């Protein structure tokens, strides 16, 4: 049995932990062979792969990024993409493919499985935590910890200068990183894509914080939108090959608006890719390792077209299609809890 592995989409901490667990379990218990495809779907598309064995995965558990590389290549947009992937998998004698990715990468795996019979097992990853089929994706906890530490640090500099500090975090069209880090970091305002915000209300919270002689921290998700506007984008023309616009810009815009409306000095920190870099948290290493073990178990059982998912304390298998069917967004009730601390 030969198993192929690939990591696609935006990288996130914990990818290497999955690769290590898959290879360790697969070689030790089942004597499987492994090959790693380079740079997401670009690997099987171009036939770019190399052997993976236990020595190749030693020492990678705490390392961020992915030893296989990643990309946002969409093979379904390539002329003959499916045919080329099938030919390369056949040439490499790959019996099953473990695909570690988010909505887009797993969406391709679902279609390759359903429409072309490619034997895929999915593993969900993304710092955005926006896949509805799993309670958590690995990478999210690390991103939240990084953002929380940044907020902690920004409190002291904001207080020293009595300024507003706006912190823009990632998360695409879901507010999970903003909500969790904002709550953990004691932010005075948290703005998420799920709830359009009212600038007057935001300025009211900012002003009331100053009245209490403290400096406000405003956490804004990159996908958050004002009530009477649309996405605020630094570069509206930039799109990836899955058609997603490149988010970011709302933090800068918001700081300017707050400054001009309240007369208080405001600055912006855009955390950007720092949230995706570096060593995974203990939780993400634990989750990624368990996902890896369960992915190889699915291969052993011949249970293809499935994705591993966390449900409560258990790792279960769900149809790959389900993984990408619905975006998991922040529910109103959770946001209402956070509002207790605004202002
Ligand atoms: O999906 C993960 C993510 O980090 C999003 O939060 C963010 O919008 C996007 O990827 C950034 O993509 P890129 O790495 O292409 O800049």
From TrEMBL:
Site (Important for catalytic activity and substrate specificity) residue list: 104
E.C. numbers: 2.7.1.90
Site (Important for catalytic activity): 125
Pathway(s) annotated for this protein in UniProt: Carbohydrate degradation; glycolysis; D-glyceraldehyde 3-phosphate and glycerone phosphate from D-glucose: step 3/4
Required co-factors: Mg(2+)
Residues noted as binding diphosphate in the record, renumbered to the chain: 10
Catalyzed chemical reaction(s): beta-D-fructose 6-phosphate + diphosphate = beta-D-fructose 1,6-bisphosphate + phosphate + H(+)
SUPFAM superfamilies per UniProt: Phosphofructokinase
Residues that bind Mg(2+): 103
GO cellular component: 6-phosphofructokinase complex
Keyword annotations from UniProtKB, A to Z: Cytoplasm, Glycolysis, Kinase, Magnesium, Metal-binding, Transferase
Protein name per UniProt: Pyrophosphate--fructose 6-phosphate 1-phosphotransferase
